Amino acid sequence: MSGTASTSVRPGAGLRSAAWLAFALLVVIMLGSAFIRFAQGDATLEATAEAARWVYRVAAIIFVLVIAGVAVLAWDELRPASRVVLGAQVGLAIALAFLGRITPSDHPIVAFGNPLGGLALVGLAWWIVLAASPATGRARPLLGGALVAAGCAAIAALVVRMPGLVAGLAVQVAATAALVAGVTLLYRRGNRCES
After folding, report:
1. Would 1 be classed as within a structural domain?
2. Is the pTM for the entire model greater than 0.90?
3. pLDDT of 32-57, one tens digit each?
4. Which residue range is the domain that position 71 belongs to?
């Protein structure tokens, strides 16, 4: 299939399903990672944290398989900008896998890299969900950028000042929601440029 023909192909149901699965797995991974991080040192949550580690690991393995499958099998269904996003997602997933080998660590690159990298993966995965779905709505790039920045700032604040479990998970969920809303608004702008 030529490059000009591939830009007019509409994403199929398989790509939509895989994109949603990858996004859902990343949400599980993010919440599992946050739970493990906030539960550290609490003996009453030790068994639950170990179960969360296993869920995290299984979800991460499945995510890597799904996103690799999307990259290989659905490449022609994506527009050029979304291919760049997918490539960035695969590259970031590989980088985070290596970073995870030295986690937990107090080194700033590890301490900030894992949660911010995970949030970035969620944003990239959401972009692919949007790319695989019919686009609607108007762009609001300033609001979208502000929401993405707010989500990243909230995650960075969690690293600097480690709150309790409930507050930490609440901020994690709010940061993820802000990021998704921001990427949605930014994608609509990018989608017009891809046409």
Report:
1. no
2. no
3. 999 998 998 899 999 999 999 999 99
4. 9-194
